[in-house]
Write a structure and sequence with these properties.
It holds the Pfam family Mo-co_dimer. GO terms for molecular function: heme binding; molybdenum ion binding; molybdopterin cofactor binding; sulfite oxidase activity. It comes from Lithospermum erythrorhizon (Purple gromwell). One of its GO terms (biological process) is sulfur compound metabolic process. Keywords: Metal-binding, Molybdenum, Oxidoreductase. The structure is a single chain. A 5-stranded mixed beta sheet has the order 7-6-15-10-11. Strands 8, 9, 12, 13 and 14 form a 5-stranded antiparallel beta sheet that branches. It has a 5-stranded mixed beta sheet with strand order 17-24-23-19-20, with no helix packed on it. The protein has about 400 residues and is mainly beta. It has helices at about 35, 80-85, 105, 130-140, 175-180, 235-240, and strands at about 5, 20-25, 30, 50, 60, 65-70, 75-80, 90-95, 120-130, 155-160, 170-175, 190-195, 195, 205-210, 225-230, 265-270, 275-280, 280-290, 300-305, 310-315, 315, 335-345, 350-355, 380-390. A hairpin with a 4-residue loop joins strand 2 (about 20-25) and strand 3 (about 30). It folds into 2 domains: about 5-255, Sulfite Oxidase, Chain A, domain 2; about 265-390, Immunoglobulin-like (Sandwich). It contains 6 helices and 24 strands. The chain is globular, with a radius of gyration of 21 Å. The structure holds ligand MTE and molybdenum atom. The ligand Nc1nc2c(c(=O)[nH]1)N[C@H]1C(S)=C(S)[C@@H](COP(=O)(O)O)O[C@H]1N2 binds near residues 48, 50, 159 and 161. Ligand MTE binds near residues 48, 51, 52, 161 and 202.
Length: about 400
């Protein structure tokens, strides 16, 4: 692997923002405080959640770094950064969300396995790079290809980081070829985040961005791409990031019965309040994010201050002062929206938010009904408690 190196320990980690809440140190997993998350529509890079399964790779020589691409029965081609930069540069605003977002709350129902996350394992960034559909077209695979002449149906992305789940091997994942070759799916090989060269934590020099899909498929530090007949057989596709029913436990689990999770479901969370907040008698600001997978927009966000008995509709926006309309050509279809409502609070209350997407999918009322042993996709109504007192928060 010329140009890039994967350390086997944590002695070469990049610097990180002191505000981040660290959920695991090695590998480094951290998220911003709730209030920081909603302070801007585009999440600043240093506050963007960091989700890793091994030590962060080190680029030693960017000129010699390349991605090797192999098709079934085909030759291997090397793609250098300069080749990728030669292709048209596309910019996509997309929200990345870890499937483990809100896991800590799910573990309160019954223990789950995995890194604990509050509600900020999510972020919205401006990603720039080449469209994967253009890259593949240049390599001889036309746009909107389902299957290649040699039977290729999936594109596998392989990194170089050393993950213990892969017994020291690299992180990998795949997406269907039809999504990879569809220019409207906006899958990117990204080299910039928020207008700057990618940071090491986020996949420098090159990462995949798969909009509308759980973060696990957006492979960082891309080392090779393979056009393959079956989906990737790696740990994170076959033995993790699958959604099981509440009846499945570690004694009766059969991983082969479920498909790898792909799109994420509709989600929202209140970020202006902690799980329990002291507020002053009077107006309380209820503000947070809402997002859905698969390019579905947010149709509505409902807010309740009586635990879900009665509801009001929150206002929604992406850009300050511009009301959000889910099917407006100017909306960022892969990006979150912020919602805001004001409530008069005179006594202790349970405040709840739930979002509805453009397909009318709605978040489930309780976490119990979606509990799963790996603690993924907790999209239950987000509930916080306020107590009225004299100090603010
Ligand atoms: N090579 C590699 N890619 C990876 C991961 C990883 O550990 N190694 N983690 C995945 C997961 S689970 C998520 S949620 C996102 C997190 O991206 P971020 O750290 O840029 O927020 O990267 C994905 N890509
Ligand atoms: Mo993730």
């Amino acid at each position: 692997m010329p140009g890039i190196r994967a350390p086997s320990d944590y002695s070469e980690e990049p610097p990180r923002h002191p505000c981040l809440k660290i959920n695991a140190k090695e590998p480094f997993n951290a998220e911003p405080p709730r209030s920081n998350l909603i302070s801007s529509y585009v999440t600043p890079v240093d506050l963007f959640y960091k989700r890793n399964h091994g030590p962060i790779p080190v680029v030693e020589d960017i000129e010699s770094y390349s991605v090797s691409v192999t098709a079934l029965q085909g030759n291997t081609r090397a793609l250098f950064i300069k080749d990728i930069r030669k292709l048209q540069k596309h910019t996509v605003v997309a929200t990345l969300q870890c499937a483990g977002n809100r896991r800590t709350a799910m573990s309160k129902t019954k223990t789950v396995r995995g890194v604990g996350w509050d509600i900020a394992a999510i972020g919205n960034a401006v990603w720039s790079g080449a469209k994967l559909a253009d890259v593949l077209e240049q390599l001889g695979i036309p746009k909107y290809t389902n299957v290649t002449s040699s039977g290729g149906k999936h594109v596998e992305f392989v990194s170089i980081d050393k993950c213990k789940e892969e017994n020291g091997g690299p992180y990998k994942a795949s997406i269907p070829l039809i999504q990879a070759t569809n220019p409207e799916a906006d899958v990117l090989l990204a080299y910039e985040m928020n207008g700057q060269t990618l940071k090491r934590d986020h996949g420098y020099p090159l990462r995949v961005i798969v909009p509308g899909v759980i973060g696990a498929r957006s492979v960082k530090w891309l080392d090779s791409m393979n056009i393959i007949a079956e989906e990737c057989q790696g740990f994170f596709m076959q033995k993790d990031y699958k959604m099981f029913p509440p009846s499945v436990n570690w004694d009766n689990i059969d991983w082969s019965t479920r498909r790898p999770q792909h799109d994420f479901p509709v989600q929202c969370a209140i970020c202006s309040l902690e799980d329990v907040s002291m507020v002053k008698h009077g107006k309380v600001n209820i503000k947070g994010y809402a997002v859905s997978g698969g390019g579905r927009g947010i149709e509505r966000v409902d807010v309740s201050i009586d635990g879900g008995k009665s509801w009001v509709e929150a206002s929604r926006y992406q850009r300050i002062g511009v009301p959000y309309v889910a099917d407006d050509a100017n909306c960022d279809k892969w990006a979150w929206v912020f919602f805001e409502a004001e409530a008069d609070i005179t006594h202790g209350a349970e405040i709840v938010a739930k979002a509805v997407d453009t397909a009318a999918n709605v978040q489930p009322e309780n976490v119990e009904v979606i509990w799963n042993l790996r603690g993924i996709l907790n999209t239950s109504w987000h509930r916080v408690h306020v107590k009225v007192g004299h100090s603010n928060m």
